[in-house]
Design goal:
Main location: membrane
Domain ABC transporter: 407-646
Membrane topology: Multi-pass membrane protein
GO molecular function: ATP binding
InterPro entries: AAA+_ATPase, ABC1_TM_sf, ABC_transporter-like_ATP-bd, P-loop_NTPase, Type_1_exporter
Bound molecules: adenosine-5'-triphosphate
Strand order of the largest sheet: 6-7-8-3-9-10
Low-confidence stretches: 1-24
Structural class: alpha/beta
């Protein structure tokens, strides 16, 4: 590929070499590279969540047969939980459709001997009742199939919504520590795939069970007509069955070999098309590389899909050929049996009709059995995961917590599950109502971890956290969180209306008075009044009609949300990192004014803001290194706060 060159073929400045000086003495900008290197092909990426990537390839027929009943039972459980009436309708329709086939075949076997008589008129007269029964049975069977389809269509969206809702809700209710358990995200992704496929699986289950019912009906009728016919039937359908399994495997091999590329391409697609990254992409001329990356990914997917086309054709042709040979063989055997007088012509004719029905049924069984086997693996992941997360939902105790006057940490320590070293070593600390406490420390010192412990978001792995006399480890966590207002480092840009972006989590009254009051406190009321629909404006640029705020405005809104709650424990983690000086000043002034009624904790790296705190706690490597007023700490010999403050001013 011809790669565009930027800036012409000027040599780049080597490290340590003084940059060019343009005529007139102004230092020239660093020269662009003489020629851009060819971009490398996208890495072979793998998606760790795919536990079952080789399952289909390695599965034997027996594995599939064993697994399918479990998948069917799980599908039935899902369907039953969302709509019992429709589930019963599907099941009844399946049974009646099978019964229709059996009645139709029996009626055909009754009609054929009559029709085989030499006088056609007489034969028809004798056969018509059986023919009418056959036609009605066929019509009933077809009607039942359509009814089952209708019922499944009613079930599908409900199943999808219920599976998704369960999963999302459990994520929201899980202890934060659940996210830290090894492999949680992988299992969550697999469960999400299971939830997505729950819809397909209901359809697959319907077609598969219908196939089974049809096959059983055909086999029963044939066996009752002549025991030999069952063997003959099996011979005619086995090649189709094997062909179907091999073709399904080829399909899945292709699916398997392309899924990573398709997933990654899908994720990249979002990055390439979202307005959020549009500036960075353009201003840094990233398009050529990203275009080539995306095109290579498309080629990779297409190439692998095409590779599967030839073996697929070969297998389906071979299966069809063998099925044809076996069918011919079956017809020949039936003819021989009829000629030798061991079987009546009518029964032989019925066998041919039944074998056609059974062949179609077997095709469905094999095709949808394979699909169900694969989807079933993800469905069982879904169930395993929801059982796992259900056992990890936040349920620490039933004691209701009241708004605290005091938060006390005694030897409280925290170690993340996959870490050897503690994020926080045992800490003793008391925070009092009316006090503003600033937490300071370098990146990774343990500030956010400490915040999580004192708000009851996590339970310490050692020691205790008490709100007054109540140990948070044994309380109803929700009752504690009702008293917390948290502005985390990364806050949500919720795609909701402006009103909900302030009231989210605590709708306090029906009028908008308190909302405007909160907006005023963070200097956002004039911005919200300028929105097309004021508080009713949807704050989501990507959604039609939505409106986007700036980074600092979003942060002000997060502060307004916390203030609106009027919490007893107000915690702000870097609340003003994106705000202008006026916004920052306003927020910290407001925090001081609100302070008497609550415990206020602020984490900030902008050390000038720390002056307003009553007490500064300096953390280092998970330990409290210093504690005191800002002025005293800055003045103290060898203090970390003093050092950090000096660095902040050294510009
Ligand atoms: N979910 C997690 N799993 C494992 N380790 C974590 C996790 N979150 C934080 N840590 C580790 O715990 C330590 C303390 O992290 P914490 O986020 O509390 O620091 P911080 O002081 O808030 O840092 P910053 O100023 O960068 O926000 C760090 O070493 C970090 O790598």
């Amino acid at each position: 590929m011809k790669w565009p060159r930027v800036g012409g073929p000027r040599p780049a400045a080597s490290p340590g070499v003084t940059p060019d000086v343009a005529p007139g003495g102004t230092p020239a900008l660093p020269a662009a590279r003489p020629a851009n290197p060819q971009p490398s092909a996208p890495a072979e990426l793998d998606y760790n969540g795919r536990k079952h990537r080789k399952a289909m390839e390695h599965a034997t027929l027996w594995d599939m047969a064993r697994r399918i009943p479990t998948a069917l039972a799980q599908t039935a459980r899902l369907a039953w939980s969302v709509d019992r009436r429709m589930t019963i309708t599907v099941l009844l329709c399946q049974l009646l459709s099978g019964l229709g086939t059996a009645v139709m075949l029996t009626a055909v076997s009754k009609a054929l001997p009559e029709l085989a008589t030499s006088d056609a008129r007489e034969g028809l007269a004798a056969a018509w009742p059986a023919l009418v029964v056959a036609v009605v049975a066929m019509a009933v069977g077809a009607g039942m199939w359509i009814l089952a389809d209708w019922a499944t269509r009613r079930l599908n969206p409900k199943i999808a919504a219920a599976a998704d809702l369960t999963l999302v809700d459990l994520h929201m209710r899980a202890e934060l520590s659940a996210y830290d358990t090894p492999g949680f995200t992988d299992r969550s992704q697999a469960a999400e795939i299971g939830a997505l496929r729950a819809v397909d699986i209901a359809d697959d289950a319907k077609t598969l069970t219908n196939g089974v019912v049809q096959l059983v009906s055909a086999a029963t009728v044939l066996t009752s007509l002549h025991p030999l016919l069952l063997g003959v039937l099996l011979l005619s359908v086995i090649p189709r069955g094997l062909g179907g399994v091999i073709a399904a495997r080829i399909d899945y091999r292709v699916h398997d070999r392309t899924i990573s590329a398709r997933n990654v391409r899908g994720m990249m697609r979002w990055w390439l098309t979202t307005p959020e990254l549009a500036d960075e992409l353009r201003a840094n001329t990233m398009r050529p590389y990203l275009h080539s990356w995306y095109r290579d990914m498309c080629r990779r997917v297409v190439g692998r899909e095409l590779e599967g086309a030839r073996p697929y054709l070969f297998v389906t042709l071979l299966a069809a050929f063998l099925a044809g040979v076996f069918t011919l063989g079956m017809w020949a055997s039936l003819a021989a049996l009829a000629l030798s007088g061991s079987m009546s012509t009518a029964i032989a004719g019925t066998a041919i009709v039944a074998s056609q029905t059974a062949g179609r049924a077997l095709n469905s069984i094999v095709r949808y059995g394979a699909v169900m086997f694969h989807h079933g693996l993800y469905l069982s992941d879904y169930y395993t995961f929801i059982d796992e997360v259900r056992s990890m939902t936040t349920s620490r105790g039933t004691t209701q917590v009241r708004a605290p006057q005091r938060i006390r940490l005694e030897e409280a320590a925290f170690t993340y599950p996959d870490r050897a070293a503690p994020a926080l070593h045992p800490i003793n600390l008391t925070l009092n109502r009316g006090e503003v406490v600033a937490l300071v420390g370098e990146n990774g010192a343990g500030k956010s971890t400490l915040i999580r412990m004192l708000t009851g978001l996590t339970v310490p792995t050692g020691g205790t956290v008490h709100w007054d006399d109540t140990d948070l480890a044994a309380t109803d966590a929700e009752s504690a969180w009702r008293h917390v207002g948290l502005v985390p480092q990364k806050n949500g840009h919720w795609p909701l209306r402006a009103r909900e972006n302030i009231t989210l989590g605590q709708p306090r009254e029906h009028s908008d008075g308190l909302i405007w009051d909160a907006a005023e406190r963070v200097g956002m009321s004039h911005v919200l009044k300028g929105l097309p629909d004021q508080l009713d404006t949807l704050l989501a640029r990507s959604v039609w009609g939505g409106h986007e705020l700036s980074g600092g405005q979003w942060q002000r809104l997060a502060c307004a949300r916390a203030m609106y709650r009027e919490p007893a424990v107000l915690v702000l983690d870097e609340p003003t990192s994106e705000m202008d000086a006026r916004g920052e000043h306003l927020i910290f002034r407001e925090l001081r004014e609100m302070a008497p009624d609550r415990i206020t904790v602020v984490v900030t790296h902008r050390l000038d803001n720390v002056r307003m705190a009553d007490r500064v706690i300096v953390l280092e490597h998970g330990r409290i290194r210093e504690e005191g007023t800002f002025d005293a700490l800055v003045a103290a010999e060898g203090s970390l706060l003093g050092e950090l403050y000096a660095l902040a001013r050294d510009r």
